[in-house]
Predict the structure.
Amino acid sequence: MIYFKDKEQYVYAYTKSNIEQVSRLTELEMILSEKEHAYTDAYNVLQAALLELNEAIARYDLTIASEELNEDVSEFENDVNVKTANYNIALVTFSKIESEYLPIKSEYDEIPSVFFEIRENINVMKKMSQKEVDVYLNPPISKKQLIAETEQQKQSLLAEANNAIAPLQDAVDLGMPTESETAALQEWKKYRVLLNRVDTSTAPDIDWPKKP
């Protein structure tokens, strides 16, 4: 994905193929601007040659129909031949230009409108650097969120300590603890005290007490 940011700092992401299609769109417009002029000129020349040919044929037919065979018939016939040759040359020239122009025009016309919109967007937006993209995709955790996560961890550890202390305290309360249970109880209680003193507002700089 390629990321862009607008003036309001909103982020837009496009695939590489999207950007390539936009580049092709611009390329086609440049090619068309060059070939369209030649296409139009060749078309106009062809139409003018066709008109002259039709006029020459009409004059020849009119002369033949008049039944006045004279030297003008040969002149009109030669004129038809010249105009036919001119038309054929214009047709060959136009056909060549048309064969190059129409496929490009067809490709351009078939481009979905969304790519024109994408081009408008990226023309007024700034392409994001890799560092900016990394920050956008993996935003730093806010201080508030860090404190909340640390507090949740603290409460989880306290619950674990309470669960460890409860059976040991029962043994002491009943006057039946072993030496190891008495020692473990003191360690767990000391751990719980230290754990309670943890200031979660300093997250992420937390010095957690060592668990027994």
User: Anything to note?
Assistant: Strands lie at 2-5, 11-14, 126-127. The chain has six helices and three strands.
